[in-house]
Amino acid sequence: MQYKTIDEANQAVIQHIIESQPFLLDVQPAKDVIPEIRGKVILHSGPSIKWEDMNDPMQGSCVGATLFEGWADNEEDARKMLANGDIEFKSCHSVNAVGPMGGITTENFPVVVVENKTSGKVAYCNLNEGIGAVLRFGAFNEEVINRLKWQKDVLGPALSKALRQIDGGMNVNVLVAKAITMGDEFHQRNIAGSALFLKDIVPYLITAGLPEDELREVTQFLADTDQFFLNIMMATAKSVMDTAATTTEGSIVTVLSRNGNQFGIKVSGLGDQWFTAPVNTPDGLYFTGYSSEDACPDMGDSAITEAYGVGGMAMIAAPGVTRFVGTGGFSDAINTSDEMREICIDNNPNLSIPTWDFQGACLGIDIRKVVETGITPVINTGIAHKVAGKGQIGAGTVRVPLACFEKALEALAEKYGVDVN
Q1: What's the mean pLDDT in 98-116?
Q2: How far apart (Å, rounded) are the C-alpha atoms in residues 93 and 103?
């Protein structure tokens, strides 16, 4: 469809977002729902990247995935395979998927399956591993591999049996609308969403015919994992924003993502093209004994939540997070969301925020507004140690590089025949 103006196209883009109906349908092995991942393939976060350009935590995650899949028996052999090109790398976003931090996903990882029923767009994300030593931060010791195997053999199948009992799947919009009023912003804070998911899934876990020990293990893991809902939210946002991208005009951001080297964005009027710039290192609050000198440059597909309008864009929904990410107090939360509203074209009526006088979450990041104001989106993020296996050392915020938007705006001007000079 041809639109008379960019503004008219942008309205169509955000209407897709508002009208979306994402449902959590299942949890399946990645190879059963993502054909492109079968064989020796590793998905990673952000724009495409080569092994030699990956930071140490992402490389560590790749080593762990290689050991998990049994492609190698030890770290040395795994690194040789990865460096020699025996394993193919693909961006999660290229196969309708997303992944937190390193984003590393291989064929036997269980993934959530979320369908936007208004468009049929389906998106996938691996399961949250909890806290401590985890693959997404680059750890690959025996504890990490055993947990991944447990998720493959126990957690994934259990959730699948439970979800398949729910006629039509679990309505994610309902969970999100509740959780945002309970203090979640869906990037750094997912406590309410995770608790609501647990409340809704337990009756079906009980009737799934699981062995008693597995039922106990699964429910305990879900109860302990405050960020479990993040991965569901990421797949949800991906299914919604991929629907928004079906309007191939306009200037609305449809993807925000980073691979630890480059930050990349995609825009509704510019198709599948990445616009990249060197990624920044987060600022924030560090755990005792760590500082910015220990921090890894930002990475992860979890910024799809900010593209959708939550996360750092909706800081005011979770004012308690501001202290955790080192940005101050309640007034800072208001100021952050007010500032983010300046670069968006509307508010999402489906995501009413009580602490923001019941305004809806930010809706539709417009690259024109970003370049005009110089205000770039704020991303809430975990901070990884720059050395693989050290794990998370803090939490903070990071800004999307302005250059991403400048490059995209130049490309948009060229498409519409506008002289950028």
Answers
A1: 97
A2: 10
